[in-house]
Amino acid sequence: MRQTLTLGRLFDIRVGVHVSWLVVYAFMTLVLGRGLATLPPPTAYGLAAGCALILFASVVAHELAHALAARRFGVKTDAITLFLFGGVATLEHEPPTPKADAVIAAAGPGLSALLAVLAIVPVVLIDRFVPGGALRDGLGLLGAYVMLANGVLAIFNLIPAYPMDGGRILRALLWRRSRDRDAATNTAARLGIAFALLFVASGVLIVAATHEPVYAWYAVLGAFLLRQGWSQERATRPSRIPHHPRHPELEPRHPELQPRHPELVEGPVAAA
Fold it and tell me: Which helix (H) or strand (E) holds 90?
């Protein structure tokens, strides 16, 4: 992504943030701070900023799980980038087998689910052993938010909306069954388009019913997923030229439409 600020490297993988992430971080801090109206403003917005950082750290961990799983199958990750809708891990090339595709896609939600479960421990310990007061409330809030943020990341990203994790797991299953990665991608992308349209419609209807513009986020997210799904569907659309399974050199290809670096897209950061 252009306009990306590099934060450093983890496991020899570049980690950065797109400038759009700064807007989301400020927005989430404001929204979460307003929700803590019972606390003094400095404390409320300080905790809100901490919660927002926890969420984005959770997204980085989620993406890192993808990257390390990909490494086991010989697929390098060029970069992990936080952006407007969450995070993206840019792989050097597509996974070599359906099994690799499924394992890489499932690694992110699996780690997020594990972190959500582990977060229960400090929440319980804080509740039992930390004396009541502002410190206990603040630590309890941070622990609960780790649990919530990772739970949302795990569940939401398993929705079969390609190119999200659930869509990639579906693609892997279809690929294994048909032994045709392009056909599997095309089918998964079409389902992803359907989910994207559902997000757009739901966001618009909720905003119309509640008059709360914050829910427009889901319509914007749906539009992003629609663009991604349409691009993948178009790139893998079957050609009218006859299929030649024994002569791959005769297979029609659309290199100008194929993404040079497949991406694992996560979101939404604002749902948590």
Answer: strand 86-91
